[in-house]
């Protein structure tokens, strides 16, 4: 059956029962079962296509594993933050209540039908029984075996969601990386900008206690200096997020600008080899390559005890490759906490996954560090 047939079937259900969102997931791989949401009606975006779930993971995976329906009347009241992490379809479609039912073929579950609202909505026993007895899935080559209303369970985590991969969601690493970025920005603002703003505030409040013009002028000069520092710090934070040069001139120019900053600030030399001048890539590629190069070079400056950092950026036609190499202190990759908690490496790996990139770090104590990133090039703006 084609996606058009599924779409027609789902649209009919959504309109008949006034659901906001209806979707069907099918088993797309065996013997290790993987389920994918293959079609939907009422979707706000196309993210559901990227969700692939193992048995026991997410709404579809739990329904498949337990061979029973799942009923959630209020996502806000019934699910915690960790539950939401394990239910990407709820996040992707901003769902507030749902009913998920197993779809059978002969003696095994072949898929899951989910019906949902974007506002909390009580699925009463009468409503449930009406739905499960009226929906005809035979046209899909599947069967729906209605179970008693009392047998439909609420959603529960199947264990520590971090212990095994819960799903493969192409955009999930982006969400996680952005959350880490927001936390970093908050720390930067608190540790520098906020403290300096408080300092300026205290200086200006002290003016009322200054008796002479000279004393007041000294306070204003100091306050002006602090405000200049705040401006520079905000500029630095903004540049770290996405420098103007990346939007205006591309990855090569942006990296050259970044290298000038760290050469001045850390008194190191950056040896930059590239064949990407005047080539523009899509925004995601440029952003991820910039952020990973930025993180890798800053780590070399802060922890590597180096004088020279070697950077190469090579366009091989269908693949873009970045390598950042130093011959400094190095570290034990099995115990990255010695380099600031290891969050930097984790963030780089998360960013790489968002562009289907291959990321690895090679290092050992006393023998330097090499950071490697390569990713497929889907389009460029140089005419090639």
Helix and strand arrangement:
Elements: H1 3-17, E1 21-29, E2 34-41, E3 51-54, H2 58-66, E4 70-72, H3 75-78, H4 81-85, H5 88-93, E5 97-105, E6 108-117, H6 125-134, E7 167-169, H7 172-206, H8 213-241, H9 244-249, H10 251-266, E8 269-274, H11 283-303, E9 308-315, E10 319-326, H12 343-353, E11 358-363, E12 369-376
Parallel strand pairs: 8-9
Antiparallel strand pairs: 1-2, 1-6, 2-3, 3-7, 4-5, 5-6, 9-10, 10-12, 11-12
Helix pairs in contact: 7-8, 7-12, 10-11, 11-12
What features would you describe in this structure?
There is one protein chain. This protein has three domains: 6-168, Beta-Lactamase, CATH 3.30.450; 171-240; 243-383, Histidine kinase-like ATPase, C-terminal domain (Heat Shock Protein 90), CATH 3.30.565. Helix 11 (283-303) links the parallel strand 8 and strand 9. It is built from twelve helices and twelve strands. With 384 residues, the protein is an alpha+beta fold. Residues 157-172 have low confidence and may be disordered. It has helices spanning 3-17, 58-66, 75-78, 81-85, 88-93, 125-134, 172-206, 213-241, 244-249, 251-266, 283-303, 343-353; strands at 21-29, 34-41, 51-54, 70-72, 97-105, 108-117, 167-169, 269-274, 308-315, 319-326, 358-363, 369-376. The chain has a seven-stranded antiparallel sheet. A five-stranded mixed sheet has the order 8-9-10-12-11, covered by helices on one side.
